[in-house]
Specification:
about 550 residues; alpha/beta; TIM Barrel; Immunoglobulin-like; five-stranded antiparallel beta sheet; 16 helices; 22 strands; about 15% strand; globular; binds alpha-D-glucopyranose; binds calcium ion; Glyco_hydro_b; glycosidase; GH; hydrolase
């Protein structure tokens, strides 16, 4: 076993974690202050989203200098100090490498846009306009509009899969690859233990650059497949040049990859990545309206079970799963799939039980461990560039939705839902900052915060601690086989984990209804009776209560 296979990894969004100097922005000294809290939770590693110099158009996913810590987060020495302190407590530190694109303020891009024949000219993807002067093709950017922006100095367009301030790097250029690899080696020298690789499956482009098949009503068309022909080759090279020689863990973000692609990315013999974040299980509540408008639907838990089970069985003995429900791009699970009012504790712990019972490495996003919820913000309280661009297109330009309809969707799924500051206690600004927080604290902080949760009888934090301990102490969770029971049941997730003579059952009610045990069409379930972990007190044999979750042994 590698260390990361036994680990639970805690994701920190530094900007919103803890502000140590009162400027309203979470920072690295703030993370150092909270290390005892992280240690208490029991995780083996922390992953920090980008802390490099950045104009923050996309909260640091627009990097201006890969080797500088942005002063708003502290100095490089603070990061070194964090790594030293974390290592003292046996906590590994994982950074986020944004290798698909830089900021348009990165000196590489500022030079590149000047002319067609300087050292940096080919660092980005430049194409001539069509004869009529328009963009080279109809590709849409992920954050709205065309994926191409015109630059008069070169009389050319550059490609950006995200915002126009995030130009895509040209990975076909071997010098670009070396620059990225060098930056990663630089951070290794500072003690970093591994990488989360931002949209790494998008680094290779379709080199024909042809139009995507037209979609009625759409001027720009989102690419269905964003992985080009050299993706595996480039990732393999990254592995050989940096990851393996320096023994660094890797987890890649794989937005459009199928399970077969995930398997290719993570099968050890292919020497690419240790793990990859798949997106498929997060699409169970996504919908599109008849005119292409943003929509959500009731989560399809049958689909959730199918996708997670498919991942478990496809990767079994071949590769390793990265497990997550929440992160800085997703909203809060009790609000999204559970019940964040009456059954907040129960639904938070129910989904946690599902995730931590599976085979793979669980990732926990800051605040998930106390059951934080989505704030119900007004339009002017959102910050995210993706959301703002989408509002402009869907509500203002195309009038596909009213503001109210738009907000109804975003209250469920907006990325900003999870980016509101961490709720530490009931004091001013939830104890996040003595100043004015860069982003508004969820007004429910008086009721939901670390201090209160840890004093409560129903502590989500305590439940996470127990789950994390189980993962560390019980090989059955890391090494046991997986088998789903009652796959046809829409309301209950039941699966077995088996290792030698140990036999466990994970049983979770996904609804706010009470479900009679007699409804579960499996004779096996009744064979399990010894409680390993349970989110209710007292065993109830005849029924599953709302969001009841339990791991039982035979
Ligand atoms: C990834 C990040 C997201 C960012 C995007 C562009 O999906 O997780 O936050 O906006 O890449 O870098
Ligand atoms: Ca600060």
């Amino acid at each position: 076993m590698k260390w990361w296979q036994k680990a639970v990894i805690y994701e920190i969004y530094p900007k919103s974690f803890y502000d140590s100097n009162g400027d309203g922005i979470g920072d690295i000294p703030g993370i150092i202050k909270k290390l005892p809290y992280i240690k208490d939770l029991g995780v083996y590693a922390i992953w920090l989203t980008p802390i490099y110099l950045s104009p923050q158009v996309d909260n640091g996913y627009d990097v201006a200098d890969y080797r500088k810590v942005d002063p708003m987060f502290g100095a490089t020495d603070d990061l070194k100090e964090l790594i030293k302190e974390a290592h003292k407590q046996n906590i590994k530190v994982i950074l986020d490498m944004v290798a698909n694109h830089t900021s348009d303020q990165c000196v590489w891009f500022r030079e590149s846009k000047k002319s067609k024949d300087n050292y940096f000219s080919d660092f980005y993807i430049w194409k001539d306009p069509k004869p009529d002067g328009s963009a080279p093709n109809n590709w849409a950017a992920s954050f709205g509009g065309s994926a191409w922006t015109y630059v008069p100095e070169r009389n050319q367009y550059y490609l950006h899969y995200y915002a126009s301030q995030q130009p895509d790097l040209n990975w076909e250029n071997p010098i670009v690859r070396q620059y990225i690899f060098d930056a990663m080696r630089y951070w290794k020298a500072q003690g970093v233990d591994g990488w989360r690789l931002d949209v790494i499956t998008q680094i290779s482009k379709d080199l024909t650059f042809k139009d995507a098949p037209k979609v009625p009503g759409k001027k720009y068309v989102p690419l269905k497949n964003t992985s080009g022909p050299h993706m595996h080759k480039f990732i393999h090279e990254l592995n050989r040049e940096v990851l393996s020689p320096f023994d660094m863990m890797s987890v890649g973000e794989a937005p459009n990859s199928s399970i077969d692609e995930i398997l290719k990315l993570t099968a050890p013999e292919r020497e690419e990545l240790d793990m990859a974040f798949s997106f498929e299980h997060m699409r169970i509540d996504k919908a599109t309206g008849p005119n292409g408008e943003l929509a959500v639907k009731k989560p399809d838990f049958k689909q959730l079970k199918d996708v997670l089970s498919k991942m478990q069985t496809k990767l079994a003995n071949k590769a390793w799963n990265a497990l997550y429900f929440e992160n800085h791009d997703r909203s809060r699970i009790p609000s999204r799939w559970g019940d964040d009012k009456k059954y907040r504790y129960e639904s938070a712990t129910a989904f946690a039980t599902i995730l931590h019972g599976l085979c793979g490495t669980p990732f926990v996003f800051q605040g998930e461990e106390i059951g934080m919820t989505n704030p119900q913000y007004d339009m002017n309280q959102y910050e995210d560039i993706e959301l703002k661009n989408s509002y402009q297109e869907q509500v203002e330009e195309k009038k596909l939705l009213t503001t109210k309809e738009f907000l109804d969707v975003e209250h469920k799924i907006a990325r900003d839902n999870s980016r509101a500051p961490m709720q530490w206690n009931s004091s001013k600004n939830a104890g996040f900052s003595q100043g004015t927080p860069w982003y508004q604290v969820n007004p429910n902080y008086d009721e939901i915060n670390v201090e209160k949760d840890r004093q409560s009888k129903k502590s989500v934090f305590k439940y996470y601690q127990d789950l994390i301990k189980l993962r560390h102490n019980e090989d059955i969770l890391t090494e046991g086989t997986y088998k789903e029971l009652i796959p046809e049941d829409e309301n209950v997730f039941a699966y077995k984990r088996d290792l030698n003579d140990k036999h466990w059952l994970v049983l979770v009610n996904l609804t706010s209804k009470t479900i009679p045990m007699a409804d579960l069409k499996s004779d096996e379930i009744k064979n399990y009776s010894k409680i390993i972990i349970h989110n209710y007190e007292g065993q109830e044999e005849k029924q599953l209560r709302p969001y009841e979750a339990v791991i039982l042994a035979k």
